[in-house]
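On clarity, I found the account of how folds are encoded harder to follow than it need be. Since the whole study asks how a given chain folds, the encoding of that fold should be made plain. For illustration, here is how one protein appears when written out as sequence plus structure tokens:
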Amino acid sequence: MRQTLFLLLGYPGSGKSTFSKQLSTVRDIIRVNSDELRRYMYDDIEAIRNTKNNPAVFGALDYVTEQLLSAGKSVLYDANNNRRRDRIASQKLAAKYDADIIIIWVKTPLETAKQREGERALEKNYVRIPAERYKQLIERLQEPEASERVIVIDGLLPFAEQLQSFDAQLANITLGGRTSQQ
């Protein structure tokens, strides 16, 4: 596989981080995660939730991503890449290091994603997304354009089936095709 910057797309609770954690253990891809970085940077729950801290969090995440790309590594950028403008910025970064860029769209029904988000709130050290912020994140989801290369993962399937689908779609992309499964 060529050096690649993978971007995740999907609702909060869709299974993006669950899939990316597992994928990074079975493929030669280094995962960087905005939620984990946010928790390392801030101890206070209000600071973790405060969107005014996003520039610092994403600045650090982008720095780490660039360092990994400059070292020739493939990176899985585990953050909400639902806006086209954010994906365009990542395309420029990937191009700087002649890396491919592929979106991994974890598709999950909205009601299931909302239910998962509610269940995660019960986990230790999980900072629940406030309802208004959750609504904003959903509204910002911009489907990929025809020019974007996309792997679609069913967020309801077990990982083994997701991995099989990922590998098949990746092979199709690397052979010059564009996948649009589902």
